[in-house]
Amino acid sequence: MKIQQTLVLIKPDAVQRGLVGEIISRFERKGLKVVALKMLHMDEALAKRHYAIHEGKSFFAQLVAFITSSPLVAIVFEGAEAVEVVRRLIGETNPLQATPGTIRGDFGLDVGHNLIHGSDSEENASGEIELFFSPGKLLGYQREVDKWITGP
Ligand code: DAT
Ligand code: MG
């Protein structure tokens, strides 16, 4: 078991639909800890850096247009195996295939409006976190309840 940090973006569609609280709540209830959080309107330059791996794909322009279309919420979550745990709570990329009980499985119908981003590896998580938060903005702190979630 490894304590990790991972980047979550609550995308413009989820903000517009009033799902910010619902989504944060799912990660909190799981036991993950918020260590950084802000709302921002991504510009094209940041969107292209964040999604650089998808440059050249057929959906890239549509993806950049969508993610820059309206404000989103960026969060760093910390906890045991946080990268994989967050991806499992999010569900498959295409909400039509996402298992009910996951965020995309419960709230989405369209791959281009799939509500949320989660880093897909520890290496990508650290790069993505740096894009959104300077190191001093990550707040390490202990919670009394952590020992009841991950042990001493
Ligand atoms: P994920 O967000 O599950 O990590 P990804 O990294 O493969 O998925 O793709 C990034 C985003 O791009 C995804 O959340 C939605 C969009 N996307 C992916 N495949 C797509 C497709 N076939 N058509 C339209 N948008 C797509
Ligand atoms: Mg991805």
Oligomer: single chain
Counting structural domains, the number is: 1
The unique ligands bound to this protein are: 2'-deoxyadenosine-5'-diphosphate, magnesium ion
Provide the gyration radius in Å.
15 Å
CATH homologous superfamily, by name? Answer: Nucleoside diphosphate kinase-like domain
Number of separate helices: 8
Strand coverage percent: 15-25%
Give the overall shape, derived from the CA principal axes: globular
Concise structural overview:
This protein has helices spanning 12-16, 20-30, 44-50, 60-67, 82-90, 103-107, 122-132, 146-149, and strands at 3-10, 33-40, 72-80, 116-118. With 152 residues, it is of the alpha+beta class. 2'-deoxyadenosine-5'-diphosphate binds next to loops.
Model description:
By secondary structure, the chain is an alpha+beta fold. The chain has one domain: Alpha-Beta Plaits. 39% of the residues lie in helices and 18% in strands. A 4-stranded antiparallel β-sheet has the order 2-3-1-4. The radius of gyration is 15 Å and the shape is globular. The two termini are 13 Å apart.
Observed structural traits:
152 residues; alpha+beta; 8 helices; globular; binds 2'-deoxyadenosine-5'-diphosphate; binds magnesium ion
